[in-house]
Design brief:
By secondary structure, this protein is of the alpha+beta class. Among the domains are: about 210 residues, Alkaline Phosphatase, subunit A, CATH 3.40.720; about 200 residues, 2-Layer Sandwich (Nucleotidyltransferase, domain 5); about 80 residues, RRM (RNA recognition motif) domain (Alpha-Beta Plaits). Helix content is about 40%, strand content about 20%. It contains 29 helices and 32 strands. Helix 15 crosses helix 16, helix 21 runs parallel beside helix 29 and helix 22 packs across helix 29.
Length: about 725
C-alpha cells in the first residue's frame, strides 16, 4: 500500500512565529527532499517526503493576519481545512524570499511553467533507455530490497562471503532476518593504514537512517604501521598512541549494534568489510548503485556534490572524515530509493562529470594567465551567484515550477507574459496547470482598490476595537461599599486582567474588566453571570456594540476551529507555579501532549493561566470534567475549551497593546471610507475563499498545500503575516 506523507509541527503558544528562511527551508525540502543539500526543516517535519504528489503555495497578495481574523467567518474553508498555522514577519519583497537568492526566472518559466535550463541538461525519455541505470533497474521506483547486492554480485565485487576460503576467521554479523523494504539502513565507512599485514582499520564510523552517528572510533592495528596514509585517512602516529581499542572490540560492538534485518550502505563497501574482517549478508554499494558504462564508478565526492549538493572530502581538511563519508553514502542510497531510477538518470551525471572536468581544465588554464588578463575577463563576466536559488534547484531535478498571478501585481520586478487579469482566470488556469507541475505558486489578490494603505489603517482600527469589546466584560450592580479587592480576586480566577475600572455613571456601581485573553472574558460570562460576588448577585455581560452582535457566533466557530481541537484553557493558577510544577500536577490527565504557559511579552512574567493540548479530542473533553473542582496549591481552577491557543493569543496581545497614532478626524474619514466598501470586501473575501476551496479540492491526495497571507510592510505601517499549511488526505482536509 502506498505510504501517505505526513506533516507534524509544534506550532503551539510561543513557538508559532516563523521566519522567511524557515519557510524557504520547508518548501525546499518538500520539493527536493535530500537533493541539493535540502534537509528536514528545523521547526516541523515531513514524513515520507518522496511520496508527496506535489507542493502548492497559495499567496494572498497584500493580505495579512489582520484580514484573516477580520473576515474570519467569511474564510470558512481556510479555517476548517488547515490544522497548522504560524505567524510570518512582513517582507517588502515576499515572492523573492520564497525563491531564494538569484532566481533565474524567465517569462516563459513563470507564465507557462516551463524550465529554462532543464531541456539542455536533462536527457529525453528516448535517451534514458540507454542509460546504464535504467538498463539495470528499469524506470519504476522500487523498494530498498531491489538495490541490495545479490550473492553473485557480492562474489564478483570481492565482498567477504560466509564459507568462502578467503574469509576464514571473519566474524559473521548474524543479521539473518528476512529483509523488507522497511528494513533499517546504516551507513558504514572505515579509514585504513598500511601495515606489515596489509590494510588494517584505524577508524570506524556507523550512522543510522537519520544521519545520527552511532559509532566513530579509533582502532589500533595489530601489526606495525608502514604508512599512515595521513593525506587520505587523517590518521597520525600521535593519534593512535593512546588508543587501546582493537579490531575484536569493534567487531563485537558492531555485531551488537546492528539489528537482525539491518542493511549496510557504503561506497565500495567491500573494502571496509574486508578490513573489518566481517561478513554481512545485505548491503547496498553506492559505487555500484549509480551505475556507469564499462564498469567504471563515480567517486563519492562527485556524487555527494552532484546529487546531494554537499561538499565532502574538502582539501582544506586533513584526510577524510569517515562519519561524513558514511552519511553521504547513506543519503545517496536514500535519494536513489525515494526518487527512483528515472529521476536519478535525469540528473545526467555523466554530463555533469564532463562539465566539472572541463571547468577544472579551464580553471587550471586561467591560473597560468597574467593577472591583468584574469581581472579583465572577470570584469566582462556576470557576477557569480554564491547561493543557488530554489527554482534553479527544481529545474536541475527536472521538475517544472509554475507561477500564476495577475497582471497588476509586482512579481519581484520580474517581467511577466500572458498573465491572468482576474482571480477567476487564475483559478481556471490553476485547475488546468497545477496537476502538470510538482511545484506551484498561485497568487490571488483582492484588487488594488481594497489594499490601499488608508483602508488598511481603518481596518486595523476596527479589528482592534472589536477585540477590545470581546475582551471586555461589565459586572454589577454592587453595593456602594463593595470590596473592589475581592471582585478583582474573583474575576482574576478566570484569567489575566489587563485593566479594571469602576463605573460610577450608573445608579449602583459596576466594574469594567478588560482581560488579556478571549477565554478569560468568555469564562467570566459563563461562570459568574448570576453568581454572588462581594455580597451582590451580579450580571456579567459584554458591552452592547455593533461589533459584538455576532460575538456568540464567532466564539462558537473559534471553539470548532481545527487549531483548537483537543486544546483546553485552564485559569486560576498561582503565578509562582512553574511549567515543571504544572507538568507534575496535570501528569495524571490522559493523552496530555503539550502544556503552554503564556507570559507577558514585555516583562516575561508568567500569567495565571495555561493551555493544555491533548492527543485526542475526547481526552480534552474528559479533562474538562476532571479539572472541575480541582484545587492546585490552594487555588481553585476554572477551565473551558480553548479559543485562541495557537498563534492567535500572541497576535491578540500585540493588537491589544498597540495604540493607533492617527488623529481623530483623519481616522474618522478612513472609517467612513471603509464602511462604504466593507460589504463589497466581505463578498470579495467570501468568493476568494470559495476559489481556494475549489483549487484545494482539485489537488491530488498527498499534496502539501501552504496558504500565505504575506503581511504588509509599508511606510504607513506594518502588519504581520499568517501561514496555514497541511498535507491533503483522503478526507479532503489537511491532516497533521
Amino acid at each position: 500500500q502506498e505510504k501517505s506523507s505526513r506533516l507534524s509541527a509544534a506550532l503551539f503558544g510561543e513557538d508559532c512565529e516563523i521566519s522567511r528562511d524557515q519557510l524557504y527551508e520547508l518548501l525546499k525540502y518538500a520539493a527536493l527532499g535530500k537533493c541539493h543539500n535540502a534537509t528536514q526543516p528545523s521547526w516541523c517535519r515531513i514524513y515520507h517526503q518522496s511520496h508527496l504528489a506535489g507542493v502548492v503555495v497559495i499567496v494572498l497578495h497584500e493580505m495579512s493576519q489582520l484580514h484573516f481574523y477580520k473576515f474570519y467567518l467569511q474564510f470558512k474553508h481556510l479555517r476548517r481545512a488547515f490544522r497548522h498555522r504560524f505567524t510570518l514577519t512582513p517582507s517588502a519583497n515576499f515572492l523573492a524570499s520564497l525563491y531564494g537568492e538569484g532566481a533565474n526566472l524567465k517569462p516563459q518559466n513563470i507564465a507557462q511553467g516551463l524550465t529554462s535550463t532543464s531541456s539542455e541538461c536533462i536527457p529525453k525519455s528516448s535517451d534514458l533507455q540507454h542509460d546504464p541505470i535504467i538498463r539495470k533497474y528499469g524506470e519504476k521506483k522500487r523498494g530498498l530490497t531491489s538495490y541490495t547486492l545479490t550473492l553473485e554480485e557480492q562474489k564478483k565485487n570481492d565482498y567477504p562471503i560466509k564459507g568462502s576460503p578467503g574469509c576464514k576467521g571473519y566474524i559473521y554479523t548474524e543479521c539473518d532476518q528476512q529483509r523488507t523494504d522497511s528494513s533499517p539502513l546504516f551507513g558504514l565507512d572505515c579509514e585504513m593504514c598500511l601495515t606489515a599485514k596489509g590494510n588494517e582499520v584505524t577508524r570506524v564510523s556507523l550512522v543510522d537512517a537519520e544521519g545520527q552517528c552511532l559509532l566513530n572510533e579509533l582502532v589500533k592495528p595489530e601489526s606495525t604501521v608502514v604508512n599512515y596514509r595521513t593525506r587520505f585517512s587523517g590518521i597520525t602516529k600521535k593519534m593512535l598512541l593512546p588508543v587501546k581499542t582493537r579490531l575484536p572490540d569493534i567487531q563485537t560492538r558492531l555485531k551488537k549494534m546492528l539489528p537482525h534485518d539491518a542493511v549496510l550502505v557504503g561506497h565500495s563497501l567491500n573494502a571496509d568489510l574486508q578490513a573489518l574482517e566481517m561478513i554481512h549478508p545485505s548491503v547496498i554499494d553506492t559505487s555500484l548503485l549509480f551505475a556507469r558504462n564499462e564498469g567504471r564508478r563515480f567517486k563519492l565526492k562527485f556524487l555527494a556534490k552532484a546529487v546531494l549538493g554537499k561538499e565532502i572530502q574538502c582539501e582544506q581538511k586533513l584526510g577524510h572524515d569517515p562519519a561524513e563519508d558514511a552519511r553521504a553514502a547513506l543519503e545517496l542510497a536514500q535519494f536513489f530509493i525515494e526518487q527512483g531510477p528515472a529521476k536519478v538518470a535525469e540528473l545526467n551525471l555523466e554530463m555533469l562529470l564532463t562539465t566539472e572536468k572541463l571547468a577544472e581544465v579551464s580553471q587550471n588554464k586561467a591560473a597560468f594567465q597574467p593577472q591583468e588578463c584574469r581581472v579583465q575577463k572577470q570584469l566582462n563576466e556576470p557576477p557569480h551567484l554564491s547561493k543557488p536559488c530554489f527554482l534553479d534547484c527544481l529545474q536541475v531535478t527536472g521538475q517544472k515550477p509554475l507561477l500564476l498571478g495577475r497582471q497588476d501585481l509586482d512579481f519581484s520586478g520580474l517581467r511577466q507574459s500572458n498573465l491572468s487579469t482576474s482571480n477567476k482566470q487564475i483559478l481556471q488556469r490553476a485547475l488546468e496547470d497545477v496537476p502538470l507541475s510538482t511545484f506551484s505558486i498561485i497568487q490571488f489578490s483582492l484588487g488594488p482598490e481594497y489594499i490601499a494603505s488608508h483602508l488598511l489603517a481603518g481596518l486595523c482600527e476596527k479589528v482592534r476595537s472589536k477585540l477590545t469589546d470581546m475582551l471586555t466584560i461589565y459586572a454589577g450592580p454592587f453595593e456602594e461599599s463593595f470590596c473592589l479587592k475581592s471582585v478583582k480576586k474573583e474575576f482574576g480566577r478566570c484569567g489575566p486582567i489587563q485593566s479594571l475600572t469602576v463605573v460610577t455613571e450608573t445608579y449602583q456601581p459596576y466594574v469594567c474588566i478588560q482581560y488579556e485573553v478571549l477565554e478569560a472574558a468568555q469564562l467570566a460570562v459563563e461562570s459568574l453571570n448570576g453568581a454572588e460576588v462581594a455580597g451582590s448577585c451580579i450580571k456579567v455581560q459584554r458591552p452592547v456594540t455593533a461589533a459584538v452582535l455576532d460575538c456568540d457566533v464567532l466564539i462558537k466557530e473559534l471553539e470548532l476551529d481545527v487549531e483548537n481541537e483537543g486544546v483546553i484553557y485552564v485559569a486560576g493558577l498561582k503565578k509562582s507555579l512553574t511549567e515543571m510544577d504544572l507538568q507534575e500536577e496535570f501528569s495524571q490527565l490522559k493523552d496530555l501532549e503539550t502544556l503552554f504557559l503564556p507570559k507577558d511579552l514585555q516583562s516575561g512574567k508568567h500569567r495565571n493561566c495555561c493551555f493544555l493540548k491533548f492527543q485526542k479530542s475526547q481526552s480534552a473533553v474528559d479533562a474538562l470534567e476532571v479539572i472541575k473542582g480541582w484545587t492546585v496549591k490552594g487555588s481553585k481552577l476554572r477551565s473551558r475549551h480553548a479559543l485562541a491557543s495557537g498563534h492567535l493569543w500572541r497576535w491578540i496581545w500585540q493588537m491589544n497593546h498597540s495604540n493607533g497614532k492617527q488623529g481623530g478626524n483623519i481616522l474618522y474619514e478612513k472609517m467612513e471610507q471603509l464602511s462604504d466598501s466593507e460589504q463589497d470586501l466581505r463578498k470579495k473575501v467570501k468568493k476568494l475563499d470559495q476559489h481556494i476551496k475549489k483549487l484545494y479540492r482539485s489537488l491530488q491526495n498527498n499534496t502539501l498545500c501552504v496558504v500565505l497571507f504575506p503581511g504588509v510592510n509599508s511606510t504607513h505601517g506594518s502588519q504581520s503575516g499568517l501561514g496555514l499549511m497541511g498535507i491533503k488526505d483522503d478526507g479532503g482536509r489537511s491532516g497533521c
